Amino acid sequence: SDTNGSDIFVHDRLGTVQPGAITNLAATPGPAAGMATLSWTAPSVATPFLQTAIRYRTDSAITSEADWSSAKRADAPPASAAAGQRQTFIVKDLEPGRTYHFAVRLGDWAGNITPLSNSPSAKAQEPEQIDLTVSLWRVPDATDRAKYEEIFQHFADAIYEMSNGANVIRK
User: What is the pLDDT of residues 60-103, one digit of tens each?
Assistant: First the structure.
């Protein structure tokens, strides 16, 4: 077991054919902040009984056994699909906006492990930014304004301006 966790491949007495390598691993930003989506086609000899291991790193592509060993293990990877079927997996808990390099391997019940996949990269999804306008029905006094600003600052990077609808009160 290495310091990044071990990939657990369960074995039985029946498997004798080494699964093929994944050659079309693709990586894109994920559906939410701090996520990346991986997709690939299950290789030849793949069965739903193959175990999947996914690893990632930020400094360079995963192109060697040393790179694989030092890369971080993704939690809860899926079981492999049948040969030729497309699979996707969302890697979570990444640093938003940071670029990650990924690789995937499969193992069968007999202990055969695929060669490293190709190692694409993607930026983890950044948080969505929205513009928000809040209108108050009355002009707040200084005490109320301070309370509103404190509340809004929990949800915004900055308060850009306050106005009474006709004039900018403060920027």
Answer: 999 999 999 999 999 999 988 888 889 999 999 999 999 999 99
Distance CA 18, CA 110 (A): 9
pTM of the model: 0.69
Q: Which run of H or E residues covers position 170?
A: strand 168-170
CA angle 127, 129, 130 (to 5 degrees): 145
Q: 150 phi and psi, to 5 degrees?
A: -60, -45
SS3 sequence of 146-159:
HHHHHHHHCCCCCC
Burial of 158 from C-beta contacts in 10 A (0-12 / 13-18 / 19+): exposed
When pLDDT is cut at 50, 70 and 90, the band that residue 10 belongs to is: very low
Q: What angle do CA 139, 142, 147 make, to 5 degrees?
A: 90
Q: Place 13 in a pLDDT band, splitting at 50, 70 and 90.
A: very low
Based on C-alpha coordinates, what's the Rg of the chain? 24
| Residue for token pair 């369960």 | 10
Q: Which single residue is written with the structure tokens 């291991």?
A: 53
| CA 129 to chain centroid | 19
